[in-house]
Amino acid sequence: MRELIYYVAVSLDGYIAGPEGQFDAFLVEGDHLAGINAEFGDTIPTDIAAHLGIDQSGGRFSTVLMGAATHAVGLPDMPSPYRHLEQVVFTHRELEPAENLTTTDANPVEVVRELKQRGEGSGGGRDGGTGDIWLCGGADLASQLHGEIDRLVLKRQPFLFGSGIPLFAPGDYAPVRFDHVRTRDFDSGVALTEYVRRP
C-alpha cells in the first residue's frame, strides 16, 4: 500500500514557518542541498528543478497534498508548482484551474485512504499514481491526517523561530508513537531525520 509521508522543513523549536507564514530563514545554501535533492528531487517545484537540471522522473512520490495556505505560497507565479505530480489542494475556496491540480473540500482522511488504495508505493513519481503520497503541509492538514501518516521525514534546520506555524496544529488525539529510522547530519547544521509509525 502507498505510504503517506510528511516531508517538511522544521525549525529546532518545531515550526514549519514563522508567525506570518515566512520561511526565508530556512537555509538554501550548504552541503545539505545536494544530499537531500539527490534523494527527494521530486519535492522541488517543477520549474525550479528543470532550471537546476534535476531529473524528477524516478522520484519516490506520485501525489502531493497541500492546504490552501501552502499552495498559496507560490502564487501567482506558480499556480501548479508540482505539475510533475498529481496535486491535491484541500480548500473551500475556488482556485483558478491549473495543470495537474485538483481542489477539493472533501474529508482529507477519506481522500488519503482512497489514494492509498490505488497501488503499491514503489516510487516512480510519473507512474500513474502508484508512488507514495507526499504531505507538503500545512499544520492544520497534518493534524487532520495524523492518523494516516505512515512516515515523517523532517529537514531539521539549525535555528529557532520562537513562534509561528507548528509542525502539527493542536489536536485532540492520543499520543502517536513513531520509531527512528535514520538521521543524516550535514555540515550546514541541517539534519534529515526519518521516523516510521510504530505498528
Question: Stretches where pLDDT falls below 50 for ≥5 residues?
Answer: 121-127
Tell me the major beta sheet: 8 strands, mixed
Query: What CATH architecture would you give?
Result: 3-Layer(aba) Sandwich
- Give the neighbour order of strands across the main sheet: 5-4-3-6-1-7-10-9
In sequence order, what are the helices and strands, one letter per element?
Answer: EEHHEHEEHEHEEEE
Tally of DSSP β-strands: 10
State the domain count.
1
**What structural class should be given to the helix and strand makeup?**
alpha/beta
Shape: globular
**Helical segment tally?**
5
CATH class: Alpha Beta
Strand content: 25-35%
Gap between N and C termini: 14 Å
The overall average pLDDT, rounded, is 93
Helix content: 10-25%
CATH topology: Dihydrofolate Reductase, subunit A
Instruction: Tell me the radius of gyration.
Output: 16 Å
